[in-house]
Write a structure and sequence with these properties.
Elements: E1 2-3, E2 7-8, H1 11-14, H2 19-26, H3 41-68, E3 91-92, E4 98-99, E5 113-117, H4 118-123, H5 129-133, E6 139-143, E7 151-155, E8 163-167, E9 170-171, E10 190-197, H6 207-211, E11 214-220, E12 231-240, E13 244-254, E14 259-270, E15 274-280, E16 283-289, E17 294-307, E18 310-324, E19 339-356, E20 359-377, E21 385-406, E22 409-424, E23 431-447, E24 450-466, E25 494-506, E26 512-524, H7 528-532, E27 544-558, E28 572-592, E29 597-621, E30 624-639, E31 658-667, E32 672-680, E33 683-684, E34 694-695, E35 698-709, E36 724-731, E37 739-741, E38 744-745, E39 750-758
Parallel strand pairs: 8-11
Antiparallel strand pairs: 1-4, 2-3, 5-10, 6-7, 8-9, 10-11, 12-13, 12-39, 13-14, 14-17, 15-16, 17-18, 18-19, 19-20, 20-21, 21-22, 22-23, 23-24, 24-25, 25-26, 26-27, 27-28, 28-29, 29-30, 30-31, 31-32, 32-35, 33-34, 35-36, 36-39, 37-38
Keywords: Cell outer membrane, Membrane, Receptor, Signal, TonB box, Transmembrane, Transmembrane beta strand, Transmembrane helix, Transport
Domain TonB-dependent receptor plug: 109-204
Region (Disordered): 467-490
């Protein structure tokens, strides 16, 4: 991180720190005595230099800890209620350049939170949100291969339906399938990604955030209010193997000191025809992957407005794609005829207000519409063709009010209400509508070295299903039968209260060393597909219950350099270690019955694991540094449904016991070099852990070269960064042949080149 500023306003940062830390930092460590009469001019000058150096060192120490706690000066919100008595003091210093490695994990958070920024994504050659999520400890990504292949995210083997995806503060919903395809989000307009196990650290989040077992948060770039230039234009172009071409455009304009607009547009085009190898006994067969093409476009407009103690952000987004779905590859048969069209648009608004010194309000509104069309050609369908069309609408409103009770107590109450419906052309499927209400009451206590967060989430869900006549079945309908009758049995209303508690304790007052623990109860309601789709749907399904337990320790240390002129030259180290136990009951699975498969509550799963992360920053000179990050996950995730079954205590499908990744970035004035390696241990494609279903372990390496150029003089105090950025990445450099999902081969060696111009 580069910071260059003429005026260093330290006290707003210090006012957000705990009282003990403020006392330690604001104390006079070297005994500055203003005895001007006994000093000569030379000693005065020397003392002023030392004074500035020490202030810079203390400011850097405070900033490093604040970054670890993910605390920033906030214009509105609960943090703004802190006394402003310290904010009236301002010290004017000369330009100071501070370089430090931003902590990957929120070290003082009561729950595990991991973050990766856009600059790290570029330096490491990460190409998608799913690939970025793979680098997080405890995160599994289902990847079906191909340029436009489906990617879903799960935390600690709880399943994608238990993991929420949040985009700029509002949770994305998919009531039809329950899981979000993160491959549709472009990295060009993303500021940072974070994964929270349990829940995020923001007390003012929505009830949906509190109700989730894990959250993948995507945060867009937003607006820079401090830049002296009122507008900015950024043009990106990416090209690569297999016909990949991805142009993007971002434009931001400050209309006034209070209002700003941003615009983002991007496109992805690729034919996706990549080679792969099939092992057929002692022989290897070389084939090409077809029907993996994609053509997609996305556009987004954002409006930002601030006044007094209020902030308003509004967003309108549109996405459209058509792509092939590469099918399974079994020996000589690699043909695939499945096609998918997706169209979605949404409008959302977030309003944050500081109603009083101790009272804050966050309100959210959203409307979302999605349309999808699926086609498959096969002789098993009537007329040789299957066409499924689905439309979803959602109306969502949320409000969170928080109050600072004093004496370290803070409370918040969140209420979410949504109406969602699904309309399909499937003859035997009714059109359901779901009414959802979620209420979350949270309480936080912070005293000296302690922090305790607790919350209760109440959920009430009611549904209805219409009996619209969709006509008889034909080649264009999604029904496998000829009857036009609709089974519209209504499930009973669902009510549930889910508790959660998390805490941490700072073990040493002068060291960033925390012990944390968490217990959280969540559950997921069956999706519309689980309950209504064709003959496999079951309206008698009960919600799937999950309980999470976590115990961990976090540590950070800054090894200081010897020079007061550059006190941040020392090595920085951050490490986390978390052990956990998860239990899932009433697991929703597809179970074979006499004639057809049926969705039932059948499974019971126990998950034991360890997540570990290490982050190291090594200064190597005035303009050089080495950043190293590593994460490791051990998971013992087994089925404990029926002790009489042969697969009792067998590892869950697609869940490796061991997985991890390592990355390193050498930053220098010439060409920055990035390397990342992902390693996944052996796993099984079915619940029976036999050699027939065993999938081999693999390692994948990516190398990236990047360089920044300045094409002209930039205004003083403008945001850091160069006008032109170039990067080249070699993905899967050693051409490893592997599969994430059985019979879905992943791409081998490929390359990508990116150019980014900022005006």
């Amino acid at each position: 991180m580069d910071v260059s500023q003429k005026t260093c306003r330290c006290h707003p940062f210090l006012s957000l720190r705990p009282a003990a830390d403020r006392k330690m930092i604001s104390s006079n460590p070297v005994g500055w005595v203003r005895d001007e009469e006994n000093r000569n001019n030379r000693m005065k000058k020397k003392k002023r230099i030392t004074h500035v150096a020490l202030i810079g060192a203390m400011w850097m120490s405070g900033l490093s800890t604040l970054q670890a706690q993910h605390l920033e000066p906030v214009r509105v919100g609960m943090q703004a209620s802190v006394s402003d008595s310290l904010r009236t003091r301002t010290q004017h210093l000369d330009d100071v350049e501070v370089r430090a490695k931003k902590p990957r994990s929120a070290l003082s958070s009561v729950t595990p939170i991991q973050t990766i920024t856009s600059s790290e994504l570029q330096l490491l050659g990460i190409t998608s949100v799913g690939d970025a999520a793979k680098r997080m400890a405890g995160v599994q990504v289902r990847d079906y291969g191909g340029i436009g292949g489906l990617q879903t995210v799960s935390v600690r083997s709880l399943g994608a339906c238990h993991t929420a995806v949040s985009y700029d503060g509002i949770v994305v919903s998919n009531m039809q399938a329950g899981q979000i395809d993160v491959s549709r989000y472009s990295l060009s307009n993303i500021r940072q990604l974070s994964v929270a196990i349990g829940q995020g650290s923001d007390l003012m989040q929505s009830a949906r955030h509190y109700a989730s077992a894990g959250i993948l948060s995507i945060e867009s770039r937003g607006i820079d209010w401090t830049s002296p230039q009122p507008w900015q234009l950024k043009v990106n172009a990416k090209t690569g193997s297999w016909g990949l071409f991805t142009p993007s455009l971002q434009y931001s304009q400050r209309l006034s000191s209070q209002t700003a607009l941003t615009f983002d547009a991007n496109m992805v085009r690729a034919d996706g025809v990549y080679p792969f190898t099939i092992q057929n006994g002692r022989y290897k067969e070389h084939h090409k992957r077809y029907n993996s093409d994609i053509l997609s476009g996305q556009g987004e407009v954002n409006l930002f407005h601030r006044w007094d103690k209020n902030e308003l952000s509004a967003k309108v987004s549109y996405y459209n794609s058509k792509r092939g779905l590469p099918g399974v590859v079994i020996l000589y048969n690699s043909d695939a005829e499945e096609r998918m069209w997706d169209e979605s648009c949404f409008a959302q608004m977030v309003w944050k207000s500081q109603l009083a010194p101790r009272l804050a309000l966050n309100a959210r509104l959203k409307y979302a519409h999605t349309w999808s069309k699926y086609e498959d050609y096969n002789v098993k369908y009537q007329g040789g063709k299957l066409t499924d069309i689905a439309r979803q609408n959602e109306y969502y409103a949320s409000a969170t009010i928080g109050y600072d009770l004093g004496w370290g107590w803070t409370t918040a109450l969140a209420e979410d209400f949504s109406i969602g419906d699904l309309r399909t052309n499937v003859v035997s499927q009714p059109n359901p509508t779901r009414y959802s209400s979620q209420t979350a009451w949270s309480l936080r206590w912070k005293w000296q070295r302690w922090q305790v967060d607790g919350n209760l989430v109440g959920t009430y869900i009611s549904e209805k299903a219409s009996k619209e006549d969709k006509g008889s079945s034909d080649s264009s309908s999604g029904s496998s039968g000829s009857s036009s009758s609709v089974n519209a049995r209504i499930p009973a209303d669902r009510k549930r209260i889910s508790p959660s508690i998390a805490m941490n304790y700072r073990l040493l007052a002068d060291e960033t060393l925390y012990l944390r623990a968490m217990m959280k109860s969540t559950y997921r309601v069956p999706t519309f597909t689980d309950m209504y789709y064709l003959h496999i749907g079951n309206t008698n399904l009960k919600p799937e219950n999950a309980t999470e337990w976590n115990l961990g320790v976090t540590w950070a240390h800054q090894f200081r350099g010897k020079s007061l002129r550059n006190p941040t030259r020392g090595i920085s180290l951050q490490a986390t270690l978390d052990t956990y136990y998860n239990k899932v009951t009433d697991k929703i699975v597809a179970f074979p019955t006499t004639y057809v498969w049926k969705m039932v509550n059948f499974g019971r799963v126990e998950i034991k694991g360890v997540d570990a992360t290490v982050s190291l920053g090594v200064p190597m000179g005035r303009k050089m540094a080495l950043d190293v990050d590593a994460s490791y996950t051990y998971q013992y995730a087994v089925d404990k449904t029926d002790s009489k079954k042969s697969y009792y205590r067998h590892q869950l499908p697609y869940t490796p016991r061991h997985s991890g990744n390592v990355s390193a970035v050498w930053r220098n004035p010439w060409v920055s070099v990035g390397w990342q390696m992902q390693a996944v241990g052996e796993r099984w494609s079915m619940i029976q852990c036999t050699d027939e279903y065993r999938m081999k372990a693999y390692q994948e390496h990516t190398f990236t070269l990047s360089r920044e150029f300045s094409l002209g003089k930039r205004k003083r105090n403008a945001e850091s960064g160069s006008d032109l950025k170039l990067s080249f990445s070699l993905l899967n450099a050693f051409n490893k042949q592997y599969e994430v999902i059985k019979y879905y081969p992943m791409p081998g060696r490929s390359w990508q080149a990116t150019a980014s111009l900022t005006l």
